[in-house]
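Practice problem: predict the structure.
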Amino acid sequence: MTTRVLITGAYGQVGVDCVDTFNGLIPPGGSSFLPPVSAGEFDVIGVSHHDLDVSNESMVTRVVEMIRPDAIVHLAAYTAVDKAETDEGTCRAVNVDGTRFLAEAGERVGAHVIAISSDYVFDGRSARAYVEGDERNPLGAYGRSKRDGEDAVSASVSMIRASWVMGSRGKNVVRAVRDRLASGGEVRFVTDQVGTPTMAADLSRVLVEFVRHRPGGIWHVANTGEASWCDVISAEAEILGAGSVLPITTHELNPAPLATRPAHSALDTGKLHRDMGISMPHWRDGLQRLLEGAE
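Answer:
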């Protein structure tokens, strides 16, 4: 039986990989660490912001009732972390209200909803990687919106916290500095922000398992291994065989970012491995695939 899947934010960096993955394709930078998607397993409907403004409740209700999906993968989000400090109302309309509207509409038609949250719900003061039940204490407007988006839905929703997401398509740090590194240039990146890098292609593959199994509750999904941004970009320079990376601290950034980032927001994915049997590849492996598959 074919499962109809509605994907919001289908043209974002995770969305494009997600649409490919649910259609049985391996997106650029993807891998086969989980069982493949069968032909005809999913009927995929991907929508952009122009098709569906998730902050508009009546539009959400109308679209969901028209499509009547079996599952909703909700990727549409306000992700401008610094802009959110001066535009918190818009941020909350998308990340809090929009998530609630999709969850409620999905429940009415019997669809399982999978939504994406963030490591920014934590304050970064933990000496170890965060587990799902750790206390949340976001440091900025974006993190608050993600925390409140988590609280706006029932436990039947599968709420996935992902971190430092990067894909071979769309905007991200790795793509932004690639040409400069490849030409032998120098870039500056911080050593005092540590997290768990996540490849969009690998995250998309895990999302398939969440549609298949519909577990509900909060889950941490990230590639294995911790890194600073300096570590990530240094690895990129090494893979490209060109460029150099100058380590700096957050206080040395000029101009200073508006939003405060958590210093250590690594996500522990033990629950994902223990309860769903999923072990994601190491972030270095994912980065290599991303750079080799990037357009």
